[in-house]
Amino acid sequence: EEEEESSEEEDEEKKMLLTQLESEATRIKNIGESRRLLPVYAYRSELMYAIKESQALIIVGETGSGKTTQLPQYLVEDGYTEGGKYQIAVTQPRRVAAMSVATRVSDEMNVVLGTEVGYSIRFDEKTTPGKTILKYMTDGMLLREVLTDPELSKYSCIMIDEAHERTLATDVLLGLLKNIMKQRKSLKLLISSATVNAKKFSVFFGDCPIFNVPGRRYPVDIHYTLQPEGNYINAAITTIFQIHTTQALKGDILLFLTGQEEIENTKEKIEEIASKLGSRIPQLLITPIFANLPQEQQANIFQKTPEKCRKVVLATNIAETSLTIDGIKYVIDPGFVKENSYIPSTGMTQLLTIPCSKASVDQRAGRAGRVGPGKCFRLFTKYSYENELEAMPRPEIVRTNLSNTVLLLLSLNVKDLLNFPFLDPPQISTLTKSLENLYILGALNSKGQITELGKMMCEFPCEPEFAKVLHSAATHPKAGGVLEQCLSIVSMFHETTSIFIGNKKEATSHIVSDISSDHLLYLKIYEDWVSSNYSRPWCQDHRIQYRTMLRVRNIRNQLNRCCVKLGLSTINASFNGDAQMGENVMIAKLTKSFISGFPLNIVKLTSGGYQTIGKSKGGLSVTIHPSSVIFQNQKEKGKKLEKFILYQQLMLTSKEFVRDCLPIPNNLWLTEMVPQVFDNVINDK
Ligand code: ADP
Ligand code: MG
Q1: What integer is the mean pLDDT of 623-652?
Q2: pLDDT at position 626, please?
Q3: Which atom of ligand 1 is nearest to the CA of 215?
Q4: Name one GO biological process term (predicted).
Q5: How far apart are the C-alpha atoms of 85 and 82, rounded to whole Å?
Q6: Helix (H, G, I), strand (E, B), or coil: what is residue 67?
Q7: Percent of the chain residues past pLDDT 90, beyond the cut
């Protein structure tokens, strides 16, 4: 009897295995079929011929036609990697896109992600040296690779994807590639772009050919509001429920919002309304997608919408062209986007919510017509569309701080910045300001040449300002010996997803009592977590995101490796006379280290409240953000207002807020660390 049972079990097992194999076979077959259905497939041989014939090729095609996922596979299939001798790089402006596309392509090629197909984004690399032949990466990562491999010699083909986004890194790469291509005639360059702007790229690369992949697109009905909307979030939510309750259930909704916070708040509001309506309406599945969405949640957006349910995707403009979500029939477009804007005269970067360009809103509308006829609800007027919107978005290079870029170019020996081949030249005032900033940081000498410190800063996978903090924390006579602490804080600042479960204030209310700054709060959280042996329950107890902390640890390891490699760790250890340093000494050194890295991120208390200390007379009035420990200390615990405060972020929204703040209890520290900036400010009053 026993035997029979076990053989029955065996049979069951075999059957299961067979079903699994069959479903796997079907899956592969389906993937193969869906690959052949994509618009680019019909042009495969023409495309490959065009690539063979020209060193540079611009590829233009409707979003979703298969440029990103298919073209690189064609290159692999046609032997461009020469049996693994070379790799193929595909750049993306956004981290999430690089990861998600690499995942999809590894699936299509039926390999494990991180083997033949991998991705590389800052602080997270999933590749196998010697094995990876197709690498999706952020444009910023490829730019960093130029530092160690100026001719990008390990690649036979480079595809600059989403070039129309015109990120700073993409623009600089294009300039560098122009020279690299002269050195390496066998290198193939593909530039893919949404429909706009293709001609400009072609002209830039000596009138290289433009290949058009005609896409299929169904008609999209466009609706405008009759009056401008006062509150576009409410208007958008109303529209969602109108669609949901009046239109047939088949057809998902895509709503474009401006950022993570807005997306999370809107999600909450929609869910609240939906739960009130309960079973009176069909279920809604709300899936957010933004650049810093944690990896574990990314797969959700591509999940097939369950029966009797409608999916609502809340997306930033990442869903405009870089990611294609199937099944969208309705697009709701408030017409706004968040954009960095740098003001050279004050040296400040503002993150502003501004109206989208015409090109953007047209792209967005197109998302509704991929699977069938669709509808787009624009939450602005037809008049505004026709008369007020800019034609194109402004490229990042003309509206951003260029310190990183200038430092990178100088370390690549590009001495004549004004004659570097920029697709659009940056403003001279921005370049000058960058040189000035780099000089203040000690990255350049008074002749504008890069210093040893400057070269060191380039080695760090973080902004030069943070690199300077770490450098001072390890080596400065008045600050050295606090490298470990600064590494923890800097790593916490680099993790862009929220560390807290729920809001920061609630999560930290019990820790905050005797802490004087956000920097020390982050330090304490990190150190307590380390003491708990990186424990998950500790995170739960303290309302801290465990996965986020794991990423922070990973970032810290990488920054630490860099410090060891550059010898900073050894110098830091030589301050061991201070090993027993008290809390106050530690805080003073840490504060000084941050001053040396961010001497321009300082606000001063005046009769009219806090003001920035820009060179121009009368700084900008700012308010300390309510999420800051300092806000709580001052407003809620009645502690005295600090005269000087260093901030990590300035947000210009309804009010000018400074975020992540560190008080500077002693003016002398400012002059001690950065006399060239502060001698005037302090003596002023
Ligand atoms: P393009 O780059 O031309 O915009 P893509 O190559 O990104 O087009 O997308 C081609 C198709 O692949 C899309 O229509 C979509 O159906 C599918 N696809 C892409 N990424 C994923 C993913 N992560 N999961 C599921 N399907 C995907
Ligand atoms: Mg694409």
Answers
A1: 85
A2: 86
A3: 3
A4: protein-RNA complex organization
A5: 5
A6: helix
A7: 66
Q: Which residue has the tokens 């924390």?
A: 473
pLDDT tens sequence across 322-359 = 888 889 999 999 999 998 888 777 667 777 889 999 99
Q: Where do we find the tokens 């130029």?
A: 146
Q: Give CA–CA dist 87/411, Å, rounded.
A: 25
The pTM (predicted TM-score) of the whole model is: 0.88
Question: Can you read off the two tokens belonging to residue 35?
Answer: 């690959």
Cβ atoms of residues 646 and 662 within 8 Å: yes
Contact 453, 410 (CB under 8 A): no
Between vectors from CA 59 to CA 57 and to CA 60, what angle results, nearest 5°?
150
Other Cβ atoms closer than 10 A to 124: 17
Ligand 2 center to 467 CA (angstroms): 33
CB 324 within 8 A of CB 370: yes
* Whether the predicted pLDDT of 275 surpasses 90: yes
> Atom 27 in ligand 1: which residue has the minimum CA distance?
104
Sign of the torsion formed by the C-alpha atoms of 184, 67, 60 and 49: positive
| Phi–psi pair at 591, nearest 5 degrees | -60, -40
322 lines ligand 1 (CB under 6 A): no
Nearest ligand to the C-alpha atom of residue 371: 1
Contact partners, residue 403, CB within 8 Å, separation at least 6: 434, 437, 438, 463, 464, 465
Task: Please answer whether residues 47 and 74 qualify as being in contact, where contact means their C-beta atoms are separated by less than 8 angstroms.
Answer: yes
Say how many Å lie between the CA of residue 166 and the centre of ligand 2. 14
Q: What is the DSSP letter of 242?
A: H
Residue 318 has pLDDT above 80, yes or no: yes
Q: Can you tell me the distance from the alpha carbon of 482 to that of 136, in angstroms, rounded to the nearest whole number?
A: 37
> Do residues 247 and 312 make contact, with C-beta atoms less than 8 angstroms apart?
no
For ligand 1, atom 10, name the residue with the nearest CA: 66
Ligand 1 proximity of 302 Cβ (cutoff 6 Å)? yes
CA 326 to ligand 1 centroid distance, Å? 8
Q: Other C-beta atoms within 10 Å of 675: how many?
A: 11
Q: Kindly identify the ligand whose nearest atom is closest to the C-alpha of 99.
A: 1
Q: Are strands 56-61 and 188-193 parallel, antiparallel or unpaired?
A: parallel
Residue with tokens 């690199």: 467
H or E element in which residue 58 lies: strand 56-61
Structure tokens at 400: 């951003």
- The answer to ipTM > 0.90 is yes
Q: Does the CB atom of residue 39 touch ligand 1 within 6 A?
A: no
The answer, yes or no, to whether any atom of ligand 1 lies below 6 A from the CB of 64, is: yes
Q: What confidence tens digit (pLDDT) does each residue in 106-157 have?
A: 999 999 999 999 999 998 999 999 999 999 999 999 999 999 999 999 999 9
Of 531 and 638, the one with more pLDDT: 531
The closest ligand to the CA of 31 turns out to be 1
Torsion of Cα atoms, 132 then 136 then 139 then 143, to 10°: 0
